[in-house]
Amino acid sequence: MSEPRASIPVIGIDLGTTFTVAGVRKNLTASCVYYGDRETLIGDPAKKKMAKYHGKVIYDQKRLIGKSLIDEKIERSKKFWTFNLQAENDGKPFVLVNGIESKIVHPEEVSAAVIGKMLDITEKSEGFRPKQAVITVPAYFNQAQKQATMEAAQKAGLEVLQLVTEPAAAAFAFTFDREQFAEHYNLLVYDFGGGTFDVVVIDLNNGNLEVKSICGDTHLGGRDLDDLLAEYVMNTASEMIGFECVTTSNNRARLMEKIEALKIELSSSEETNIYLGDMIDGFDEDIVITREKFEDLCEDCINQTIQLTERCLRDAGMPEIQEVILVGGSSRIPMVRRLLQELFPGKTLNYSIDADEAVAYGAALVAAKLSGALNSNQINLSEATPLSIGTEIGANGRFDPIIYKNSKVPAFETMTIYTMKKYQDSLGLLVYEGERPMVNGNNKIGELIVLDIIPDAPGKQKVEFTLSLDQNGILSVTSNYNGRIQNMQIDYQEARRHALRDIDELIDDAERYRHIDLQEEKRLKKRDILYRLLQEIDYNIDQIFRKNEKTSMRTKWEEIQKWYDNNPEAPEIDIDNKIEQTRGYFGSHAASSDRKIDEVFRDFRISQNVDLCFLVDTTGSMGPYIDGVRNSVYSIVEKLTKERSKLGRIADKVHLAFIAYRDYGDSKQFEVFEFNESVEAFHKFVGSLIAYGGGDVPEDVFGGIEKMLNLSWSTENAFKVVFHIADAPCHGRDFHALGDLDSNAAGDPNGRSHIDLFKQIRDKGVEYYFGKINNSTDLMVQKFSEAYGSPITDFNIANVANIRDSVVSAVTATVRRGASNDETKLEDVE
């Protein structure tokens, strides 16, 4: 019989770069291990050996765990490390310990030793040896780094109940015993530790801590400030003595001890000094370091943390932050606090829990909660994934995000992938993490190949793949082909070799190359379309063409296929021309066949964005419908951007706009939200609207339409939809039977014509849909249809719950029409 969880000893561990803390006691343990000829020492005893036995003491393993040595950041740090760092053939780092022949130590072993030391300390001080733990990791750890941390704990004989990100653990600690919070109380956690930096925005609502956005850098911390200060000190000493001072490995360890103490002292003093006479022969002077000089040296690093903080706020939709929580030893630096105070004027910087211990305390609280020692009704923690996880789509290396960056975990998404070639008997799924639109800019995680697929026409066989992130943020993948289930075994050694970039680098690259990436993504989509067309035609030549035409058709197909193979870098315009040439040639020769070529082409379109504008009557009776839009917008965007067909989604991106209109004489006749990709910003705007005004029954519909036409609609490559929601018609007796209830029965007071307005709608390429609440708008919609030149679809949304599905149906219908009516739009929307 298994032991009840509440009786199993459980602790929380903050496995830090420079120090490790167990949540059951407040003493710090240095995160380093000494491998001697006769003994192994861990923690502070190991740290004391650094100066004399520098090559035998390993530290900073957190910067190496789960990484490849082919990493620029590791290369930069190597010059300050005193141990002998090398790499295996696959790039996995290891340390060759001096004095012990062939003694190879991997970062996971160092972490395991440090964890084991924490278990020993806990057993000695608390009287029990923990069997389970909650372990914290940087928020920006990738899949390989998380898995390596799990392996380190297992090596120490510890079961990991949960991995918790360091800033989330800190937020848990700071909020756990506080009783009153406003609804949607927004916290920002700034975690500047010894080796890593993380920043998160967290929404605290009804006892739930939900991570909304994450930013950070796994190679930015106090160690980097130490390195900058050490470099300055040695350069200054060289200038003073007249020749270059070079430190030995032995002296370097002693220098870094002095530098760390100097840095700490500058947090409370305006200046201090460092003596190097015991390290440099003939040098017997103090070097004075002022806080101003220190801040000048560290300015770029600290500013980088502020820039990441600003990015985190943008990713969260720029919420108002109620509280800033400071975590990590480097958050004590006065310049850090000064810049944060400037960024959040009037807000209190909260450092009420020791910066070095807050994360471990939070981990201990989470551990107690998971073990049943704490009331389950107290604060719950919900984390997010720092990177999008997705697959390669098409034949040209495009990346298709499946689980998006900042998605709540646990998370899972199911997608369907179709065969692309005729008689294809296997189908592979390549999984990546990153934000670039091409897979070669992201980290490869793994691959799953499904064999024994029934040979068939292109697109006829399909496999369902489910990507799941567990509570630790660790990925698993399964496939389902006709009921046959298969699991992807992720080789994290392979993932480490491919993970040449940290998460922060992937995000930086995505922003830096965004414009170039968008152009290249568009070009590659066209190549994918041409590829799919060629595969469809290859299979269907026998079905479409007469016997005497097949030879010439096959020759033409081979000519175009050869062009495709030989021109991978062809510009977009050339690919467009080749698509049209393919369509025109095969279409004209198949015009008299039983199966028209359009049946091959009709399922294709070029993926586009969607401009979706809500045009809403916001007078006194419309409160429930305003709330309906607000409450459904997240789901609307999710359905449009995540539900997939053979080649992709209904929409790549959705840009949202909102026109709130009322009537003449109302204090705010119009309120406008311009097109914006941020669902959070849209949600906030709609939440600020109040239903009021109206006077007589009709409203200024024409004014609302005019405002809608003046929005910044996309000029190209977008489907444009306006969804009009109203319970009252426009002014003018031609549009209703309200008689004296219309104070402007003669028509629009400004002389605007519905015919002119709908001509402008048509000319802009906007598709107009109406959300019907009652019958009073029927005549108006009929007149609008006549001016529009085609019947307007009106959806019955008298029940507010119908808004979501109605809007999704409207956008989907627009996309489908675009696929069938516009011969240049060639990607599947089924």
TrEMBL record:
Its main location: secreted. Gene3D superfamilies: 3.30.30.30, 3.30.420.40, Actin, Chain A, domain 4, Substrate Binding Domain Of DNAk, Chain A, domain 1, von Willebrand factor, type A domain. It is found in: Secreted. Coiled coil: none annotated. One of its GO terms (biological process) is response to stress. The keyword Nuclease does not apply. InterPro entries: ATPase_NBD, Heat_shock_70_CS, HMCN1-like_VWA, HSP70_peptide-bd_sf, Hsp_70_fam, VWF_A, vWFA_dom_sf. The keyword ATP-binding applies. GO terms for molecular function: ATP binding; ATP-dependent protein folding chaperone. Pfam families: HSP70, VWA_4. Residues 611-811 form the VWFA domain. Keywords: ATP-binding, Nucleotide-binding, Secreted, Signal. CDD domains: vWFA. Belongs to the heat shock protein 70 family. This is VWFA domain-containing protein.
